Amino acid sequence: MAPGRETEPASDGQDGQGESVVAIVLARSTDTVQTVEERFAEAGFTVGPASGPTFSIQAPAATFESAFGERPVHADDGGWTTGQGDEMPLTALADDLQHELVAVAFERPVELHDEGDGMSLHQEDG
């Protein structure tokens, strides 16, 4: 990521809702990732380094709500979700940005489970 592109969003200070929310952005092409990253940075998100067509965004829930028209909420398993599921709706974004995105999704927490012969790693289905 180029210097100066990372921004620190301010806390919105409403009932702990200033807590940072992290989502993974999947762009349609590696050719447009830099432009998409810049658009999210301009909207107040902290943008993580890209890996192929993906990168992370982080901000308070209020910033997500402002950009996507829906506020992320705590999921029962401790992760983040929305009333529509684990992806942010893209319809509130500008048409050109919608066209460049496949999804903006929340990762589900991973838990270790003992299966009798040691610990194994399982993805929670939520």
Q: In what order do the strands lie side by side in the largest sheet?
A: 2-3-1-6
> What sequence of helices (H) and strands (E) makes up the elements?
EHEEHEEHEEE
Mean pLDDT: 82
Our measurement of the CA-to-CA distance between the termini, rounded to an integer number of angstroms, reads: 32 Å
Helix-strand makeup class: alpha+beta
Strand tally is 8
| Distinct helical segment count | 3
Helicity, in percent? 10-25%
Low-confidence stretches: 1-17
Q: How would you sum up the major sheet?
A: 4 strands, antiparallel
Our estimate of the beta-strand percent is 25-35%
| Rg, alpha carbons | 16 Å
Shape: globular
Question: How are the elements arranged and paired?
Answer:
Elements: E1 20-27, H1 33-42, E2 46-47, E3 54-60, H2 61-68, E4 73-74, E5 80-81, H3 95-100, E6 101-105, E7 110-114, E8 119-123
